[in-house]
């Protein structure tokens, strides 16, 4: 009898584990919604970077936009910066990157992102999160009227995307949802 009870318990636990694992899997429809949300957040970041970098943006507005942009990122995320003038790629914490961008010594700065797309599908990690990578191309143009200095480059960047299940309370009920956070932004290529 003990054998049957042990076998029953083993089967029950195995069944519960499979059911639990399946509840954390992302359905194709949910995955499509998550992909759309991730791409939307990257596009929002593109707009925020353009506003922060613009010399026409007032300081108070740039700070407000920096706060909004920071909310897109996972804690401790870093952003890569490259230049045609040096081989090294520098990495800065997100807020520091935005502050440096705002302080660039150009009269006009124009930053545009294009060809935004996934290069790796979402993969489940041991901690239950999903991780993927989105690639963007960034066109940077800086102009200094006084010195006549013009600088342009195009940078390919890989953005790590984290997708995890979170909970919130609404009217006393716990609601679970999938959230997307941006991670490190790595420079993979810089060209003229």
What does this structure look like?
α2 runs antiparallel to α3 and α3 packs antiparallel against α4. The chain has one domain: Nuclear Transport Factor 2, Chain: A, CATH 3.10.450. It has 192 residues and is α+β, with helices and mostly antiparallel strands. The strands form two sheets. Strands 3-4-5-6 form a four-stranded antiparallel beta sheet, with helices on one face. The chain is globular and about 60 Å long. 36% of the residues lie in helices and 45% in strands. The N terminus is likely disordered. A hairpin with a 2-residue loop joins β1 and β2.
Features:
36% helix; 4 helices; 192 residues; disordered N terminus; two-stranded antiparallel ribbon; Nuclear Transport Factor 2, Chain: A; 6 strands; alpha+beta
Number of strands: 6
What global shape is seen? globular
Distance between the amino and carboxyl termini: 76 Å
* Tally of separate domains: 1
Unreliable spans: 2-23
Write out the strand line-up for the largest beta sheet, numbering strands in chain order.
3-4-5-6
CATH architecture: Roll
CATH class: Alpha Beta
Main pleated-sheet profile? 4 strands, antiparallel
Strand percent estimate: over 45%
User: Could you say which structural class the secondary elements and strand pairing correspond to?
Assistant: alpha+beta
Arithmetic mean pLDDT: 87
CATH topology: Nuclear Transport Factor 2, Chain: A
Element-level helix/strand string: HHHEEHEEEE
Q: Radius of gyration, Cα only, in angstroms? A: 22 Å
Q: How many helices in DSSP terms?
A: 4
């Amino acid at each position: 009898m003990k054998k049957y009870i042990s076998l029953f318990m083993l089967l029950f636990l195995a069944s519960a584990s499979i059911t639990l694992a399946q509840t954390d899997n992302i359905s194709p429809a949910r995955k499509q919604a998550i992909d759309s949300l991730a791409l939307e957040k990257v596009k929002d970041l593109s707009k925020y970077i353009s506003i922060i970098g613009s010399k026409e943006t007032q300081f108070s507005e740039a700070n407000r936009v920096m706060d909004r942009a920071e909310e897109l990122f996972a804690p401790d995320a870093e952003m890569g910066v490259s230049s045609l003038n040096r081989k090294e790629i520098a990495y800065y914490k997100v807020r520091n990157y935005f502050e440096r961008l705002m302080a660039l010594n150009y009269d006009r700065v124009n930053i545009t992102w294009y060809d935004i797309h996934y290069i790796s599908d979402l993969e489940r990690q041991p901690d239950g999160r999903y991780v993927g990578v989105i690639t963007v191309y960034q066109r940077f143009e800086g102009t200094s009227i006084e010195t006549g200095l013009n600088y342009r480059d195009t940078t390919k960047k890989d953005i790590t995307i984290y997708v995890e299940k979170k909970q919130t309370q609404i009217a006393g009920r716990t609601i679970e949802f999938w959230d997307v956070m941006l991670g490190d932004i790595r420079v993979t290529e810089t060209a003229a």
